[in-house]
Every structure is written in C-alpha cells, then in structure tokens.
Write the structure tokens for this entry.
Amino acid sequence: MNFYTRKWVRPEDLNANGSLFGGSLLRWIDEEAAIYAIIQLGNHRVVTKLISEIDFQASAREGDLIEMGLIATQFGRTSLSMKARVRNMITRKTILSIEKIVFVGVDEDGTPVPHGYTTITYDRDRMPHPQP
C-alpha cells in the first residue's frame, strides 16, 4: 500500500474531545479515494458506491501529521474496489482501516460505464485528454 497524502490535524478538524473528528477524516479519505479512482479508471466522473465497515483503532490530536494509503484490490466492469489505511506519523499508530471502498465510473447522465482496465497504473496515462 502506498501512502501519498498527508494531512496536518488543525483545530477545525477536532471534535469536542479535542481529538480528530471522524467525519473530517472520512471526508479526506473519500476525496483521496475518488482521486485514486479517477486515475485508475481514466474517468473524471466517479461516484462512491460503498464504504465497508470502518475500524477506528487510534486517534490523532491537534498538530499531528497523518498519512492516508490506498491500494486497488479489484477491478469490476464499471468499478474499482480498494482498501484504505490511515496512520499517525507522530505516534506511528494506525488510526483506521477500511477493507473495501468501491467507486463506479459514470457518464454525463450518471449511468455506469465500462472502463476496460484490470491492473493498477502508476502513471497518469489513463486520464482523458480534452478534445480540440
């Protein structure tokens, strides 16, 4: 699993207990997973289909640095499944894990569209290019 995105936990990201608000973390993961799906599916129109059970294992405090990791686990005809992990760079503890996140590539009308991919890419070659 590659950990590319890092976030700095700021005061506006905290809950009433002074720790990282789960909703903020889930928003960051959903955004990161959407970007990953866009690159893997070569389609800038993707939607979240499913997020499985979320296992919160530790937390983060103001000033902590966290990093998010994603890995594609399965390509469907129109979808991509992945796993996610978030860890605290300061305490070195895993903050959460999600075993399955599914994104679906759609067209302008929101209809699922086949993508034709079966392997992970580490390039940006799948990104659609604007037509002249």
Observations:
- The first strand starts at residue 2 and ends at 8.
